[in-house]
Amino acid sequence: MRPLFHPSIHDVRLEAILHALSDPVRARIFTQIAAADCPKTCSAFSSVDDRTIPKSSLSQHFKVLREAGLIHSERQGVEMHNTSRCAEVEGRFPGLLPAIMGAHAVEHGLEVTPPTA
After folding, report:
1. pLDDT number for residue 88
2. CA spacing 20 to 30 A to 87: which of 67, 95, 109, 113?
3. Total domains, the chain
4. What's the whole-number mean pLDDT along residues 39-46?
């Protein structure tokens, strides 16, 4: 199995973060991972906003989030455990994630819960 790519925080680009969070499904996935107090498996997101997400699409969403530097994924058996890299991103781009996720929540009428650092 190929190793997963996780960029160094110094290689994380603003454009990649903006692209990753421009998709509403990825933004919801990231919001839930960032708010979680433990790693979330990919299968926990088979349904987002009452919409079933095919496995192939889910894999692509997680790849985009991972390669943008927003999440860290670790294989554990047949499952992938995902955690946020909010603290690292906050150190590189102070205030960016709370601003983006707050705007996303307002736009979609969701409860505003900023990512934890």
Report:
1. 97
2. 109
3. 1
4. 88
CA 71 vs CA 27, 51, 92, 109: distances in Å: 12, 22, 15, 24
Mean of the per-residue pLDDT values of the chain:
90
Host domain of residue 78: 12-107
User: Both tokens of residue 18?
Assistant: 């903006």
User: Would residue 51 count as lying in a domain?
Assistant: yes
Residue 36 lies in a domain: yes
Helix (H) or strand (E) holding 79: strand 79-84
Residues 6+ apart with CB under 8 A from 42: 58, 59, 62, 79, 80, 82
Does the global pTM surpass 0.70?
Answer: yes
DSSP state letters, 49-64: TTEE--HHHHHHHHHH
How high is the pLDDT of residue 91?
97
- Four-point Cα dihedral 39, 89, 21, 69, nearest 10: -70
Asked whether residue 61 is assigned to any structural domain, the reply reads yes
Return the CATH number at 29. Answer: 1.10.10.10
